[in-house]
Amino acid sequence: SRTLRLAVIPGDGIGREVTAEGLKALNAALPADTKLDTVDYDLGAGRWHRTGETLPDSVLEELRQADAILLGAIGDPTVPSGVLERGLLLKLRFAFDHHVNLRPSRLYPGVASPLAAPGDIDFVVVREGTEGPYVGNGGSLRTGTPHEVATEVSLNTAFGIERVVRDAYRRAQARPRKHLTLVHKNNVLVHAGHLWKNIFDRVGQEYPEVTTDYLHVDAATIFMVTNPARFDVIVTDNLFGDILTDLAAAISGGIGLAASGNINPSGDFPSMFEPVHGSAPDIAGTGKADPTAAVLSVALLLEHLGLAEQATRIHDAVAADIAQRSAAGPRTTSQIGDALAERVAG
Ligand code: IPM
Ligand code: MN
Q1: What is the tens place of the pLDDT at every residue in 56-72?
Q2: Considering only CA atoms, which residue is closest to atom 12 of ligand 1?
Q3: Does 89 sit in the ligand 1 pocket, CB within 6 Å?
Q4: Which residues form the Isopropylmalate dehydrogenase-like domain (predicted)?
Q5: Is 246 in the pocket of ligand 1 (CB under 6 A)?
Protein backbone atom coordinates (compact mmCIF):
# COMPACT_ATOMS: atom_id res chain seq x y z
CA SER A 1 0.00 0.00 0.00
CA ARG A 2 1.04 3.54 -0.59
CA THR A 3 0.37 6.89 1.05
CA LEU A 4 -0.23 10.01 -0.98
CA ARG A 5 0.87 13.05 1.00
CA LEU A 6 -1.17 15.91 -0.40
CA ALA A 7 -0.68 19.52 0.66
CA VAL A 8 -3.88 21.52 0.20
CA ILE A 9 -3.85 25.29 -0.17
CA PRO A 10 -7.53 26.30 -0.38
CA GLY A 11 -6.58 29.99 -0.55
CA ASP A 12 -9.15 32.74 -0.97
CA GLY A 13 -12.76 33.21 -2.03
CA ILE A 14 -14.20 30.21 -3.85
CA GLY A 15 -10.84 28.41 -3.52
CA ARG A 16 -11.95 26.76 -0.29
CA GLU A 17 -15.28 25.61 -1.76
CA VAL A 18 -13.85 24.13 -4.95
CA THR A 19 -10.90 22.34 -3.34
CA ALA A 20 -13.33 20.57 -1.00
CA GLU A 21 -15.11 19.17 -4.07
CA GLY A 22 -11.80 18.29 -5.72
CA LEU A 23 -10.91 16.24 -2.65
CA LYS A 24 -14.23 14.37 -2.81
CA ALA A 25 -13.41 13.30 -6.37
CA LEU A 26 -9.86 12.38 -5.37
CA ASN A 27 -11.09 10.20 -2.50
CA ALA A 28 -13.53 8.51 -4.83
CA ALA A 29 -10.87 7.87 -7.47
CA LEU A 30 -7.94 6.61 -5.41
CA PRO A 31 -7.17 2.89 -5.54
CA ALA A 32 -8.07 0.98 -2.38
CA ASP A 33 -4.41 0.41 -1.50
CA THR A 34 -3.61 4.13 -1.56
CA LYS A 35 -4.10 6.13 1.61
CA LEU A 36 -4.67 9.86 1.29
CA ASP A 37 -2.90 12.00 3.86
CA THR A 38 -3.89 15.67 3.46
CA VAL A 39 -2.52 18.70 5.29
CA ASP A 40 -4.25 22.06 4.90
CA TYR A 41 -2.15 25.20 4.66
CA ASP A 42 -3.60 28.55 5.59
CA LEU A 43 -2.14 30.85 2.96
CA GLY A 44 -3.61 33.75 1.05
CA ALA A 45 -5.35 37.02 1.82
CA GLY A 46 -6.51 36.05 5.32
CA ARG A 47 -3.04 35.13 6.52
CA TRP A 48 -1.50 38.19 4.91
CA HIS A 49 -3.98 40.49 6.70
CA ARG A 50 -3.35 38.78 10.04
CA THR A 51 0.43 38.38 9.89
CA GLY A 52 1.81 40.14 6.83
CA GLU A 53 3.15 36.79 5.60
CA THR A 54 2.61 35.42 2.12
CA LEU A 55 4.73 32.24 2.14
CA PRO A 56 7.09 31.82 5.07
CA ASP A 57 10.23 29.72 4.44
CA SER A 58 9.16 27.21 7.08
CA VAL A 59 5.91 26.54 5.19
CA LEU A 60 7.79 26.28 1.90
CA GLU A 61 10.03 23.63 3.51
CA GLU A 62 6.99 21.66 4.69
CA LEU A 63 5.31 21.87 1.30
CA ARG A 64 8.49 20.53 -0.29
CA GLN A 65 7.91 17.22 1.53
CA ALA A 66 4.49 16.69 -0.07
CA ASP A 67 3.93 14.34 -3.02
CA ALA A 68 1.72 16.98 -4.65
CA ILE A 69 -0.07 20.23 -3.92
CA LEU A 70 -3.71 21.05 -4.61
CA LEU A 71 -4.39 24.78 -4.75
CA GLY A 72 -7.80 26.48 -4.88
CA ALA A 73 -7.43 30.14 -5.73
CA ILE A 74 -5.33 33.05 -4.50
CA GLY A 75 -6.21 36.74 -4.45
CA ASP A 76 -8.56 39.26 -2.94
CA PRO A 77 -9.41 42.88 -3.79
CA THR A 78 -8.36 43.94 -0.26
CA VAL A 79 -4.75 42.96 -0.99
CA PRO A 80 -2.67 45.20 -3.26
CA SER A 81 -2.20 43.73 -6.74
CA GLY A 82 0.95 41.66 -7.01
CA VAL A 83 1.47 40.91 -3.32
CA LEU A 84 -0.08 37.44 -3.30
CA GLU A 85 0.58 36.76 -6.97
CA ARG A 86 4.31 37.29 -6.61
CA GLY A 87 4.68 36.43 -2.92
CA LEU A 88 2.71 33.20 -2.98
CA LEU A 89 1.60 31.77 -6.32
CA LEU A 90 4.63 32.67 -8.42
CA LYS A 91 6.93 32.02 -5.47
CA LEU A 92 5.65 28.44 -5.36
CA ARG A 93 5.99 27.98 -9.12
CA PHE A 94 9.56 29.29 -9.08
CA ALA A 95 10.70 27.63 -5.84
CA PHE A 96 9.43 24.24 -6.97
CA ASP A 97 10.70 24.71 -10.52
CA HIS A 98 7.29 24.22 -12.13
CA HIS A 99 8.60 24.79 -15.63
CA VAL A 100 5.78 22.91 -17.36
CA ASN A 101 2.50 24.74 -16.89
CA LEU A 102 0.06 22.30 -18.43
CA ARG A 103 -3.32 23.62 -19.54
CA PRO A 104 -5.59 21.30 -21.51
CA SER A 105 -8.68 22.52 -23.35
CA ARG A 106 -11.42 20.18 -24.40
CA LEU A 107 -14.93 21.04 -25.51
CA TYR A 108 -17.06 18.40 -23.83
CA PRO A 109 -20.20 17.37 -25.70
CA GLY A 110 -23.11 19.40 -24.34
CA VAL A 111 -21.02 22.44 -23.44
CA ALA A 112 -21.99 25.65 -25.18
CA SER A 113 -19.01 27.34 -26.80
CA PRO A 114 -19.28 31.03 -27.68
CA LEU A 115 -17.96 30.05 -31.11
CA ALA A 116 -20.50 29.48 -33.87
CA ALA A 117 -18.48 26.60 -35.29
CA PRO A 118 -16.13 25.37 -32.59
CA GLY A 119 -15.40 21.99 -34.17
CA ASP A 120 -13.59 19.34 -32.18
CA ILE A 121 -11.60 21.27 -29.56
CA ASP A 122 -9.04 19.05 -27.84
CA PHE A 123 -5.62 20.58 -27.35
CA VAL A 124 -3.15 21.20 -24.59
CA VAL A 125 -1.02 24.27 -24.01
CA VAL A 126 2.41 23.64 -22.54
CA ARG A 127 3.16 27.03 -21.07
CA GLU A 128 6.70 27.66 -19.84
CA GLY A 129 6.38 28.38 -16.13
CA THR A 130 9.63 29.74 -14.72
CA GLU A 131 11.03 32.27 -17.16
CA GLY A 132 9.96 34.98 -19.60
CA PRO A 133 8.64 38.31 -18.35
CA TYR A 134 7.49 36.64 -15.13
CA VAL A 135 10.93 36.51 -13.51
CA GLY A 136 10.65 39.99 -12.00
CA ASN A 137 13.69 41.28 -13.85
CA GLY A 138 12.75 44.93 -14.09
CA GLY A 139 12.70 48.24 -12.37
CA SER A 140 11.52 51.81 -12.34
CA LEU A 141 13.48 54.99 -12.78
CA ARG A 142 12.37 58.53 -11.94
CA THR A 143 9.42 57.01 -10.15
CA GLY A 144 6.44 59.31 -9.77
CA THR A 145 7.74 61.89 -12.25
CA PRO A 146 6.37 62.58 -15.72
CA HIS A 147 9.58 60.98 -17.02
CA GLU A 148 9.14 57.69 -15.24
CA VAL A 149 10.60 54.65 -16.99
CA ALA A 150 9.72 51.04 -16.28
CA THR A 151 11.35 47.88 -17.60
CA GLU A 152 10.18 44.27 -17.33
CA VAL A 153 12.84 42.20 -19.04
CA SER A 154 11.91 38.79 -20.42
CA LEU A 155 14.43 36.15 -19.42
CA ASN A 156 14.91 33.20 -21.77
CA THR A 157 17.60 30.57 -21.30
CA ALA A 158 18.52 27.81 -23.73
CA PHE A 159 18.27 25.39 -20.81
CA GLY A 160 14.81 26.61 -19.83
CA ILE A 161 13.47 26.60 -23.38
CA GLU A 162 14.90 23.23 -24.29
CA ARG A 163 13.42 21.41 -21.31
CA VAL A 164 9.90 22.72 -21.87
CA VAL A 165 10.10 22.22 -25.64
CA ARG A 166 11.27 18.65 -25.09
CA ASP A 167 8.38 18.04 -22.70
CA ALA A 168 5.95 19.35 -25.32
CA TYR A 169 7.39 17.07 -28.02
CA ARG A 170 7.04 14.10 -25.68
CA ARG A 171 3.40 14.97 -25.04
CA ALA A 172 2.72 15.47 -28.76
CA GLN A 173 4.39 12.14 -29.55
CA ALA A 174 2.04 10.41 -27.09
CA ARG A 175 -1.14 11.86 -28.63
CA PRO A 176 -2.94 10.43 -31.66
CA ARG A 177 -2.46 13.47 -33.89
CA LYS A 178 1.21 14.04 -32.92
CA HIS A 179 1.20 17.71 -33.83
CA LEU A 180 3.07 20.51 -32.07
CA THR A 181 2.74 24.25 -32.62
CA LEU A 182 5.28 26.76 -31.37
CA VAL A 183 3.72 30.12 -30.55
CA HIS A 184 5.93 33.20 -30.18
CA LYS A 185 6.45 36.57 -31.83
CA ASN A 186 9.81 36.19 -33.52
CA ASN A 187 9.12 38.86 -36.13
CA VAL A 188 9.42 41.44 -33.34
CA LEU A 189 10.96 39.74 -30.32
CA VAL A 190 13.84 38.58 -32.46
CA HIS A 191 16.28 37.62 -29.71
CA ALA A 192 14.04 35.43 -27.60
CA GLY A 193 11.94 34.42 -30.59
CA HIS A 194 14.81 33.00 -32.57
CA LEU A 195 16.26 31.21 -29.59
CA TRP A 196 12.88 29.50 -29.13
CA LYS A 197 12.57 28.68 -32.83
CA ASN A 198 16.11 27.32 -33.17
CA ILE A 199 15.73 25.06 -30.16
CA PHE A 200 12.25 24.00 -31.31
CA ASP A 201 13.64 22.96 -34.72
CA ARG A 202 16.70 21.22 -33.28
CA VAL A 203 14.79 19.17 -30.68
CA GLY A 204 12.22 18.34 -33.36
CA GLN A 205 14.82 16.26 -35.21
CA GLU A 206 14.57 13.75 -32.36
CA TYR A 207 10.81 13.43 -32.92
CA PRO A 208 10.41 12.68 -36.65
CA GLU A 209 6.83 11.49 -36.16
CA VAL A 210 5.70 14.81 -34.71
CA THR A 211 4.55 17.33 -37.30
CA THR A 212 5.14 20.96 -36.37
CA ASP A 213 4.23 24.49 -37.25
CA TYR A 214 4.99 27.95 -36.00
CA LEU A 215 2.53 30.80 -35.34
CA HIS A 216 3.03 34.33 -34.17
CA VAL A 217 0.95 34.84 -31.05
CA ASP A 218 -1.39 37.37 -32.66
CA ALA A 219 -2.18 34.95 -35.49
CA ALA A 220 -2.60 32.15 -32.97
CA THR A 221 -5.43 34.08 -31.29
CA ILE A 222 -7.22 34.31 -34.64
CA PHE A 223 -6.93 30.58 -35.31
CA MET A 224 -8.01 29.81 -31.76
CA VAL A 225 -11.30 31.52 -32.56
CA THR A 226 -11.74 30.56 -36.23
CA ASN A 227 -10.37 27.01 -36.19
CA PRO A 228 -9.35 25.77 -32.73
CA ALA A 229 -9.59 22.16 -33.93
CA ARG A 230 -6.29 22.65 -35.76
CA PHE A 231 -4.39 22.65 -32.46
CA ASP A 232 -3.06 19.52 -30.76
CA VAL A 233 -0.16 20.58 -28.51
CA ILE A 234 1.00 24.19 -28.24
CA VAL A 235 4.27 25.18 -26.62
CA THR A 236 4.87 28.81 -25.74
CA ASP A 237 6.46 31.20 -23.30
CA ASN A 238 5.10 32.17 -19.91
CA LEU A 239 3.22 35.36 -20.82
CA PHE A 240 1.91 34.26 -24.21
CA GLY A 241 0.77 31.06 -22.51
CA ASP A 242 -1.03 32.99 -19.79
CA ILE A 243 -3.03 35.01 -22.31
CA LEU A 244 -3.63 32.18 -24.76
CA THR A 245 -4.96 29.83 -22.06
CA ASP A 246 -7.59 32.31 -20.92
CA LEU A 247 -8.78 32.48 -24.52
CA ALA A 248 -8.58 28.68 -24.72
CA ALA A 249 -10.74 28.43 -21.61
CA ALA A 250 -13.27 30.92 -22.99
CA ILE A 251 -13.84 28.96 -26.19
CA SER A 252 -14.16 25.60 -24.44
CA GLY A 253 -16.78 26.22 -21.80
CA GLY A 254 -15.30 28.97 -19.69
CA ILE A 255 -12.90 29.12 -16.77
CA GLY A 256 -15.32 27.06 -14.67
CA LEU A 257 -13.96 24.06 -16.59
CA ALA A 258 -10.30 24.98 -17.10
CA ALA A 259 -7.78 22.92 -15.15
CA SER A 260 -4.04 23.29 -14.86
CA GLY A 261 -0.95 21.58 -13.58
CA ASN A 262 2.25 23.33 -12.53
CA ILE A 263 4.58 20.48 -13.14
CA ASN A 264 8.12 19.67 -12.15
CA PRO A 265 8.64 16.66 -14.41
CA SER A 266 11.82 15.49 -12.66
CA GLY A 267 9.92 14.92 -9.43
CA ASP A 268 12.59 16.84 -7.48
CA PHE A 269 9.79 19.04 -6.16
CA PRO A 270 6.07 18.53 -5.69
CA SER A 271 3.92 19.52 -8.64
CA MET A 272 0.93 21.76 -7.98
CA PHE A 273 -2.55 21.50 -9.48
CA GLU A 274 -5.03 24.36 -9.62
CA PRO A 275 -8.07 25.54 -11.53
CA VAL A 276 -7.18 28.37 -13.93
CA HIS A 277 -9.91 30.56 -12.43
CA GLY A 278 -9.36 33.02 -9.61
CA SER A 279 -10.94 33.46 -6.20
CA ALA A 280 -14.15 35.09 -7.55
CA PRO A 281 -14.87 37.06 -4.34
CA ASP A 282 -18.20 38.24 -5.81
CA ILE A 283 -19.68 34.75 -5.59
CA ALA A 284 -17.64 33.35 -2.68
CA GLY A 285 -19.85 31.62 -0.13
CA THR A 286 -22.93 31.56 -2.37
CA GLY A 287 -22.49 27.98 -3.60
CA LYS A 288 -22.50 29.23 -7.19
CA ALA A 289 -18.92 28.31 -8.02
CA ASP A 290 -18.47 25.47 -10.49
CA PRO A 291 -16.03 22.98 -8.92
CA THR A 292 -15.43 21.17 -12.22
CA ALA A 293 -12.12 22.93 -12.94
CA ALA A 294 -10.83 21.88 -9.51
CA VAL A 295 -12.04 18.32 -10.08
CA LEU A 296 -10.34 18.22 -13.50
CA SER A 297 -7.18 19.56 -11.85
CA VAL A 298 -7.33 16.50 -9.59
CA ALA A 299 -7.40 14.37 -12.76
CA LEU A 300 -4.18 16.06 -13.90
CA LEU A 301 -2.71 15.32 -10.48
CA LEU A 302 -3.60 11.64 -10.78
CA GLU A 303 -2.12 11.47 -14.27
CA HIS A 304 1.08 13.07 -13.03
CA LEU A 305 1.32 10.49 -10.25
CA GLY A 306 0.99 7.68 -12.79
CA LEU A 307 -2.65 6.91 -11.99
CA ALA A 308 -3.89 7.33 -15.56
CA GLU A 309 -6.83 4.96 -15.15
CA GLN A 310 -8.12 6.92 -12.15
CA ALA A 311 -7.69 10.16 -14.10
CA THR A 312 -9.77 8.73 -16.92
CA ARG A 313 -12.54 7.90 -14.46
CA ILE A 314 -12.67 11.55 -13.48
CA HIS A 315 -12.76 12.68 -17.11
CA ASP A 316 -15.56 10.22 -17.82
CA ALA A 317 -17.49 11.40 -14.76
CA VAL A 318 -17.15 15.03 -15.85
CA ALA A 319 -18.20 14.20 -19.41
CA ALA A 320 -21.26 12.29 -18.18
CA ASP A 321 -22.24 15.02 -15.74
CA ILE A 322 -21.81 17.80 -18.29
CA ALA A 323 -23.89 15.92 -20.83
CA GLN A 324 -26.94 16.23 -18.58
CA ARG A 325 -26.19 19.57 -16.92
CA SER A 326 -28.97 21.60 -18.45
CA ALA A 327 -31.45 18.84 -17.59
CA ALA A 328 -30.17 18.72 -14.01
CA GLY A 329 -31.19 22.33 -13.42
CA PRO A 330 -29.22 24.70 -11.20
CA ARG A 331 -27.05 22.99 -8.60
CA THR A 332 -24.79 24.26 -5.84
CA THR A 333 -21.03 23.79 -5.74
CA SER A 334 -21.30 20.82 -3.40
CA GLN A 335 -24.20 19.25 -5.30
CA ILE A 336 -22.06 19.23 -8.44
CA GLY A 337 -19.11 17.91 -6.43
CA ASP A 338 -21.21 15.14 -4.89
CA ALA A 339 -22.60 14.14 -8.28
CA LEU A 340 -19.10 13.98 -9.77
CA ALA A 341 -17.66 12.01 -6.86
CA GLU A 342 -20.55 9.58 -7.04
CA ARG A 343 -19.92 8.94 -10.72
CA VAL A 344 -16.18 8.55 -10.09
CA ALA A 345 -16.87 5.98 -7.39
CA GLY A 346 -19.00 4.16 -9.99
C1 IPM B 1 -2.75 32.20 -14.02
C2 IPM B 1 -2.84 33.53 -13.36
C3 IPM B 1 -1.48 33.88 -12.77
C4 IPM B 1 -0.50 33.97 -13.92
C5 IPM B 1 -1.44 35.17 -11.94
C6 IPM B 1 -2.51 35.18 -10.89
C7 IPM B 1 -0.08 35.37 -11.31
O8 IPM B 1 -3.29 34.50 -14.24
O9 IPM B 1 -2.47 31.20 -13.33
O10 IPM B 1 -2.94 32.12 -15.24
O11 IPM B 1 -0.36 35.03 -14.55
O12 IPM B 1 0.15 32.98 -14.18
MN1 MN C 1 -3.79 33.71 -16.20
Answers
A1: 999 999 999 999 999 99
A2: 242
A3: yes
A4: 5-340
A5: no
Strand order in the sheet with 34-40: 34-40, 2-11, 68-73, 271-275, 259-263, 100-106, 122-128, 233-236, 179-184, 211-216
pLDDT in tens, 4-45: 999 999 999 999 999 999 999 999 999 999 999 999 999 999
Asked if 249 and 258 touch (Cβ cutoff 8 Å), the reply is yes
The CA-CA-CA angle for residues 265, 267, 271, to 5°, reads: 75
Residue 104 assigned as binding residue: no
Model-level pTM? 0.97
Binding site membership of 85 for ligand 1 (Cβ less than 6 Å) = yes
Residue 336 assigned ligand-binding role: no
The complex's ipTM works out to 0.99
Instruction: Write the single-letter amino acid at 157.
Output: T
CB 45 within 8 A of CB 75: yes
How far is Cα 153 from Cα 182, in angstroms, rounded to an integer? Answer: 21
Catalytic residue chosen out of the listed positions 67, 246, 316, 338 = 246
Q: Is the CB of 258 under 6 A from ligand 1?
A: no
Range list for CATH 3.40.718.10 in the chain? 1-100+258-346, 113-252
Q: Tell me the pairing of strands 149-152 and 138-141.
A: antiparallel
Distance 4 CA to ligand 2 centre (A): 28
Residues 210 and 172 sit within 8 Å (Cβ to Cβ): yes
User: Which amino acid, residue 261?
Assistant: G
Domain 1-100+258-346: CATH class, spelled out? alpha beta
Tally the C-alpha atoms within 13 A of residue 156's C-alpha that lie toward its C-beta: 22
Catalytic annotation present for 242: yes
Q: Does residue 12 have its Cβ closer than 6 Å to ligand 1?
A: no
Say which CATH architecture domain 113-252 belongs to. 3-Layer(aba) Sandwich (3.40)
Q: Which atom of ligand 1 is least distant from the CA of 89?
A: 7
